[in-house]
Write a structure and sequence with these properties.
heterotrimer; B: mainly alpha; Helix Hairpins; 86% helix; C: 474 residues; mainly alpha
């Protein structure tokens, strides 16, 4: 039924653009943030429609979930709600209008082109140690990108640490939250663990799992089961750094003793990839929890 | 017009709406939203391009996962900077 | 292990271990910079004897995985990065005024070092995107070390840096959609001058120009670089803006089709001349010391852009040499100038240029460093800046039709002389009576002079350096 498909695509596309416009021009900041989260969920739907379930999971967890939590906590902490609406000026409208035509004509011939890379990924998949192509690209073929990306997450936390200390206090939880929080947290561990384990041969992986675990961490912190987290506690530091540490150690050892930078020895690829993924999950979960909830007192000697 | 091209156009549209937001507003939270919309647009261009190979291009999917994580990290830092910047202006006012 | 990889690994591992041990000791960072410098020199030696080499990460073939390429230039850049980090680290460890003691400056500067090192080595378009983001976030974190007053500049810096990255990424996505590979060395043989390629290169170039603060997209730079702690300003001006410039140079001189480069060249060169004149003018008028130095960075980047534009237009090999000599000479001179400016402004207790009245009597060594570094920026012989300008002017003066561009260089020289002498003339006035908390630190002042002495030292081996750089492959 191509017509029904077109109806779906068209509605989705227009909805995406409308939501984006609404987020940018909403009357209040609160409404803007809600529109933006709705946009994130629609994007997740779009990725699923386009046949990219890894991305749908990642977008729902990271794009809509974590970003939404960060936005709301910023609104809450800074008490921002007054908002001057954007005044439409001529440059802001004209420039994107012209650029749209330019970029669209540039993109016009692209659907006809074909890349040799997907075939190569499939050809080397069996040597990579995992059977899910996206995970193979992330943690074997382009592992250096992923190492740097885990470093980016770390740097974001380090950057936040340099700023004004956040209000450490957490709002008092209401009873429903207390009851649900205790139920939710173990559930996130199960879901997160499942996503991580599945990642080697099906959609899922370290980033999605880490985000789900972070949701559990945030819930536990909000209902007061977890103590305030701080950089001065060495387990926290170890958890935050574990991903980069293991990744860099693997890179250094393979370059020093093995065949080359990030060249996993034959036979041990799967073990090394799982180890890195496990540590990266722990790091991402801890870092995101710290980013959302904030440390009780940032270190300023 | 194929599905790929349609979503390419939507991606470019989102990217430009983000750009428009950057140019049109001074409110720091909205600016962060605009950046995020711009990055969603870029990712949509990449995913749309991924669909024209069968199965869906795993390299582009992996690149978008990387991009998503980078975007959320940058957003976290930007939001905290925005909040602290705002607190400073309030401190100055009082 | 390959010495180039060692030069990258040392700062990365040091940063992680310092964070883990919660150590904020300067000595680790300085030791790491020193080791990285030694490894980079070993890599340079290896490259000059055996020729440039390709490192396949993970052992996979090239379109599938990321490659590193060690050339004479990238080894030189590795050594340059380590050297600047070493010199700035020594100052930051010693000076009371660097605002970086007992902060996370030390691990963060190691991260900055590592990300720059990986930028020089990488050849992959998407890998560069991740590195540029890492570089940008690290730089923003470093700027915000200066406290709440710098947060506004840090926020604007972060937003523009992110927007620029997204421009770059959109262009990369278009290129990948068109050609199906991400490795720049493979793309070099494939690119055609069609509409898609043209648009992709345009978007990429705009993004990189915004990141490198090339005129007219430079307005974010002066507040960010002037508001950062002194040691950070030095690192940002000397190194960080050179990262995107490197990618821009790689793309246009190695990857883009020659005819596209020929069309884009004059526009870039014109933007370079505009940067020289307009930023030079702003530097002459600004009331603040560090803002003056920051505008001078924008102006000096104009020379690099001018050299790149003319290289694309005429394809003269010497212009590669001119471009990179500018980068090295500017990096050393600007590190010295920012450190001296910061040291003087903290010792004298005012951010105003007018506070430098009589600086030759109150902070003589730092003022001397400022003047010596300024001399190299103007291009006075025998300094590194002079060498670069000499190499740039030679192909310009040969052809009468190129003389208008030489006029641009002359205007830039006049502008830089104006803002440097503005400060120097003031410093020879009679000094006002010192403030009660006046307490100069001669050792720190001598440390600010060190990079400036090195840039004048470049001239000692000038001829050999030019000959050697003309001989290596780009």
């Amino acid at each position: 039924m191509p017509d029904a498909e077109w109806l779906f695509d068209g509605t989705l596309g227009i909805l995406l653009l409308v939501l984006a416009g609404a987020a940018l021009h909403a009357r209040s900041l609160y409404a803007a943030v809600v529109m933006f989260i709705a946009l994130g969920l629609m994007l997740a739907l779009t990725w699923a429609r386009l046949g990219a379930p890894d991305l749908a999971l990642a977008e729902a967890a990271i794009g809509a979930g974590v970003t939404g939590a960060l936005l709301f906590s910023t609104l809450y902490k800074a008490g921002m709600d007054r908002h001057k609406r954007a005044t439409p000026n001529r440059i802001a409208l004209l420039l994107p209008g012209l650029a749209f035509l330019l970029l669209l004509t540039a993109a016009w011939p692209l659907p006809e082109m074909h890349s040799p890379l997907p075939d190569q990924v499939m050809a080397h998949l069996k040597d990579s140690g995992v059977s899910h192509p996206v995970t193979a690209v992330l943690l074997n073929f382009r592992a250096w990108d992923t190492l740097l990306e885990v470093s980016v997450v770390l740097i974001a936390l380090l950057g936040v640490r340099q700023l004004y200390p956040s209000h450490g206090e957490v709002p008092t939880p209401w009873p429903l939250m207390l009851a649900w929080g205790r139920l939710l947290a173990p559930l996130t561990v199960i879901v997160g663990g499942y996503l991580l384990w599945r990642g080697t041969d099906a959609p899922g992986g370290a980033f999605q799992a880490g985000t789900v675990l972070a949701a559990g961490g945030v819930a536990l912190r909000l209902i007061g089961v977890l103590p305030p987290l701080g950089w001065h506690q060495w387990p926290v530091r170890l958890l935050v750094l574990a991903g980069v540490l293991v990744f860099v150690a693997v890179a250094a050892l393979t370059a020093w003793l093995g065949q080359g930078w990030l060249h996993y020895p034959t036979g041990s690829s799967k073990v090394l990839i799982l180890l890195i993924e496990l540590m990266a999950t722990a790091s991402i979960a801890t870092t995101l929890t710290l980013l959302v909830v904030g440390e009780k007192r940032e270190l300023r000697p | 017009m194929s599905t790929t091209l349609f979503y390419l156009a939507i991606g470019i549209g989102l990217w430009l709406m983000g750009l428009h937001g950057l140019l049109a507003t001074r409110q720091s939270i909205i600016l962060v939203l605009a950046i995020n919309i711009m990055s969603s647009g870029t990712f949509m261009v990449m995913v749309a391009l991924a669909t024209h190979s069968d199965p869906v291009d795993p390299v582009l999917q992996a690149l978008v996962v990387t991009g998503l994580v980078v975007a959320v990290s940058a957003t976290a830092l930007a939001l905290r900077l925005a909040a602290s910047r705002r607190r400073r202006t309030e401190d100055d006012a009082t | 292990m390959n010495p180039a990889l060692l030069s990258l690994l040392t700062p990365l591992a040091t940063a992680i271990l310092m964070l883990l041990c919660r150590s904020r000791a300067a000595v680790w960072t300085i030791a790491a910079s020193l080791l990285s410098l030694v490894a980079a020199i070993a890599a340079l030696y290896q490259v000059t004897t055996d020729g440039s080499q390709l490192i396949h990460l993970g052992g996979w073939e090239s379109p599938l995985a990321i490659r590193f390429r060690v050339t004479a230039l990238s080894a030189l850049l590795l050594a340059f990065t380590a050297l600047i980090h070493l010199l700035v680290g020594l100052y930051a460890a010693r000076s009371r005024h660097s605002q970086t003691r007992n902060t996370d400056y030390w691990p963060l500067s190691c991260f900055l070092h590592a990300s720059l090192a990986s930028l020089w080595l990488s050849t992959d378009l998407f890998n560069w995107y991740v590195i540029l983001e890492l570089l940008g976030l690290t730089a923003v974190a470093l700027v915000s070390l200066a406290g709440t007053k710098a947060h506004r500049a840090a926020f604007n810096y972060l937003l523009l840096s992110l927007a620029a990255s997204l421009c770059y990424l959109l262009g990369v996505a278009l290129l990948y959609g068109r050609y199906g590979v991400l490795d720049s060395l493979l793309l070099a043989d494939m690119l055609e001058a069609d509409h898609t390629t043209r648009t992709a290169l345009l978007v990429i170039t705009l993004g990189l120009m915004l990141k490198a603060a090339l005129w007219p997209l430079h307005l974010w730079l002066p507040p960010a670089h002037a508001g950062a702690p002194t040691a950070v300003s030095a690192l940002l001006s000397a190194l960080v803006v050179k990262g995107p410039l490197f990618v821009l140079w790689m793309l246009w001189s190695q990857v883009a089709p020659v005819e596209l480069g020929r069309q884009a060249g004059p526009a870039m060169a014109a933007a370079g001349v505009a940067a020289l004149v307009s930023a030079g003018w702003s530097a002459c008028r600004t009331p603040h010391i560090k803002t003056l130095v920051a505008y001078s960075t924008v102006a000096q980047l104009g020379y690099a852009l001018l050299a790149l534009g003319m290289l694309l237009r005429w394809g003269v090999r010497e212009l590669h040499v001119a471009l990179w000599l500018f980068v090295f000479a500017h990096g050393l001179a600007k590190a010295s100038m920012f450190l001296a400016a910061g040291e003087m402004q903290s010792t004298l207790g005012s951010k105003k240029v007018s506070a430098l009245r009589g600086a030759t009597q109150t902070v003589p060594v730092a003022m001397f460093a400022f003047a010596v570094a300024g001399g190299s920026l103007i291009g006075l012989p025998p300094s590194g800046g002079f060498l670069a300008k000499w190499v740039l002017l030679q192909p310009l003066l040969l052809e009468p039709s190129h003389w208008p561009w030489a006029l641009g260089v002359l205007l830039g020289t006049l502008a830089s002389a104006a803002y440097v002498f503005r400060v120097i003339a003031l410093s020879f006035d009679r000094a006002p009576p010192p403030r009660p908390d006046y307490n100069p630190d001669p050792v720190a002042q001598w440390l600010t002079l060190l990079p400036a002495l090195l840039v004048w030292g470049m001239a000692l081996g000038g001829e050999t350096l030019i000959l050697w750089m003309s001989g290596v492959a780009y």
